[in-house]
Amino acid sequence: xxxxxxxxxxxxxxxxxxxxxxxxxxxxxxxxxxxxxxxxxxxxxxxxxxxxxxxxxxxxxxxxxxxxxxxxxxxxxxxxxxxxxxxxxxxxxxxxxxxxxxxxxxxxxxxxxxxxxxxxxxxxxxxxxxxxxxxxxxxxxxxxxxxxxxxxxxxxxxxxxxxxxxxxxxxxxxxxxxxxxxxxxxxxxxxxxxxxxxxxxxxxxxxxxxxxxxxxxxxxxxxxxxxxxxxxxxxxxxxxxxxxxxxxxxxxxxxxxxxxxxxxxxxxxxxxxxxxxxxxxxxxxxxxxxxxxxxxxxxxxxxxxxxxxxxxxxxxxxxxxxxxxxxxxxxxxxxxxxxxxxxxxxxxxxxxxxxxxxxxxxxxxxxxxxxxxxxxxxxxxxxxxxxxxxxxxxxxxxxxxxxxxxxxxxxxxxxxxxxxxxxxxxxxxxxxxxxxxxxxxxxxxxxxxxxxxxxxxxxxxxxxxxxxxxxxxxxxxxxxxxxxxxxxxxxxxxxxxxxxxxxxxxxxxxxxxxxx
Length: 516
Hints:
One of its GO terms (cellular component) is nucleus. The chain is mainly alpha-helical and about 525 residues long. About 55% of the residues lie in helices and about 5% in strands. The chain folds into 3 domains: about 1-40 and about 85-130, no CATH class; about 140-325, no CATH class; about 325-515. The strands form 3 sheets. It has a two-stranded parallel ribbon. Strands 3-4 form a two-stranded antiparallel ribbon. The protein has a two-stranded antiparallel sheet with strand order 5-6. Strand 3 (about 350) and strand 4 (about 355) form a beta hairpin. The protein is elongated and about 120 Å long.
């Protein structure tokens, strides 16, 4: 490399340059651009725009402008006969490269010339991705420690409850990310987390949960009156689902369930049926809300609030278009079949002309078709039959995923409810098994799944709601004792109050005769 000073890049870094051409060894090693020093060593002085003597004149030119007028008192210095002007553009540009010491961990560059051509900093080459601690430091999304802790708790514990049939993890992932910039979702998550911690460990005061809930409602109500609320329907639905779960775990008895968010959610979905097939967070929220509607209907043995006929038309078209269904599709088909069965058995089974036998047969056929055509993956990983002689009133059933366990629970409960309805309206069973035997077998599967994997909270909660609707079909004292224990553990460990149900069932089953 010509010249005695080496390259300008090494000069800027105060390093000795080996003057190799066209690129010195130090620049090659560090990944920096090697900027040659100017040729020639004649006497030179640096000249920069802005050092213009015309700036002292009465009529100042614009900074950097070229005015040839000099003031009368200008001092002139003697000059050499040979003058060269040094272009310092290259060394100035070199100053904008990230300059890390030799033992540093980054040589990433921010080239301002790239920005002049419309490129973003992210488009600049990054030879070494390692960053120093100071470079990595970012402004946190949440500055309040308690809020961050509660939101993290929602992500780890409560989000997966709502994602039971959704392998996309929309509540545990998407909602948590959105909550950092959306106060409606943030306060909904904080209220639910604080309430759950209050119920399970008493580590948060109830007043804190109520305060977060009130803040959320204060944001939610004005949003509903805004004419453009449809643009954020996914956010509204997700917040409503979270607030409904808050409502569920806050109700000490069924009579205390205000159902406010259950009613709000049904209104949103009824007015926006397409949310069931819209994809993303809105669709995930629809399915989470559907199971909440099922849970309430089972607890009170009443019909569903959602317009299932209109929803079914949308869903059938969607599933037909899919061709080959995914496992998530199969779970959601099972969930919708359960919703239809609950709605039919508790509300639509009887008409003014009597029992609709054809509708009963059609619904039963749909359930059996799901059972026969679902993928092999829905088979249990392991199963062990119930054995009263060994103190096991319910089968042991392990599954490889929560989706498989829930899909089986939903269809088994649908079968039990259909057989229970047949008994209620005196329809003879056409199968080889009596209605009583079929009910016992299918309820055993529902309860067995809930008891076998108690770390999978959605299956445990579904088993508890099934007990609310079908407790009269549990006659074996050992089974009764096992299910009362499930209710107690779910209340203690999962913060879902079953005290009133426990008291009712203990009275019904004559708890004094149940062996402790």
